[in-house]
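Fig. S4 source data, part A: sequence.
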Amino acid sequence: MNSLIHPVILCGGSGTRLWPLSRSGFPKQFLVLSGDGSNQSLFQQAISRITSVADNHIGLGKTLIVTNEEHRFLALDQLRELKDVQATLLLEPTGKNTAPALTLAALYAQDSSENQEDPILVVTPADQTITNPAAFTKALQSAIAIVKEGAIAILGITPTSPQTGYGYIKVKGDAINNAYTVERFVEKPNEATAKQYLEEGGYFWNGGMFVLKASVWLDALKEFRPDIFGATETAWVARTTDQSDQATFVRPDKEIFSTIPSESIDYAVIEKCPGSKYPIKMVELDAGWNDLGAWDAVWQVGKQDEQGNVTTGDTLITNSKNSLVHASTRLVSAVGVENLIIVETADAVLVADRKNSQDVKHIVNQLESQKREEKNLHRKVSRPWGWYDSVDEGERFKVKRIQVKPGASLSLQMHHHRAEHWIVVKGTAEITNGDQVILLTENQSTYIPQGQTHRLANPGKTPLEIIEVQSGSYLGEDDIVRFEDTYGRS
């Protein structure tokens, strides 16, 4: 009998330990970090790994992306680069951890199921990497076979060192048909306990990857955490659905969703399953897994030269060892350094000892307490219509380079505190300026007075690029009054 699976990609989180490359407005799952040469982001890799499991016995249903409103167009842009992936984006109005996220996916899968089938959910975070895809596929196929019999399956990572940053899975007995019985789940241990686990054997890292039927998850959640189930189901019933650029966005009710208790899949259900009426099995995964939780982990999975250095971008290194140097916008050189992390972006540079790379979160906390924008956004900011890059600014002025995708447009808007000059450098611009609508081509320009209603659109088939010069008493991104917006932001 064939199995129908739905990949469920949990695409939340901000990856603060990978600042300054990862920021809340562009978190690590959307970055290319693994160094495997595929040029795919971690998010794209997660989808590709699961969809590749399909064969003559395993059918592929719609891919379910659980993410938030802020990141919906980042996810959509990267989905377009993957061939033959049918996806629905389930948009959380606010982060409530992974248990409500999985519940949204289970409710969607059940509601959309044909012929009363009980869909199988293959659940994975979006921000991990695997260096042996074939081993991952084999383990996942074993897990799917287990779930067909009604059990919950979890992938347990073969431990390679006494890690204190992961939860552990304790199994009992030997594997039968590639599956162990889970005895219990263990919280993150101290170093001595972690070493003991490795010496004893029978302990595996919990990487947060599960396979289970939608009905099993919902029944177990109903039993163990009826408060989460009830509130999430109520928010789901009151959902809205809309299409944007050939994508389906599903939004649970915002007000109801805000009342859902925040809890992880593990705490809400999985850790309560051993010994209950919900059997849980573990399939061992030895496939070069890494959750890239800090820059040291990125160095570990990167392609190292003879001196153990991992480099990205325009870099020059001499007499240096075991370091990671990441250049985003300019030449970065290193001389006579060891065990360092050096990460350059257009507006920030990080230098850290590799062994202290977890402590980058403290820098992010300082940025937040000082309300600095470098915590949230890069200098170059992605938008659903394209991007803008703030190339220069000073008192009462700001200069941006703006690119608009073919057929896309910014919102119809106005500003209370600034005027704008627009110069077209590439493509054709359709400009609404008050009551006038004009077309401008390369080297032509226009002026938008303060308080004037305006819109920028690209009617052409190639990207539009303009230079925008803002002038005024206040130039913040929040000085925008939107009247109409293709992307639901007005």
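Fig. S4 source data, part B ends here. The mean pLDDT is 92.
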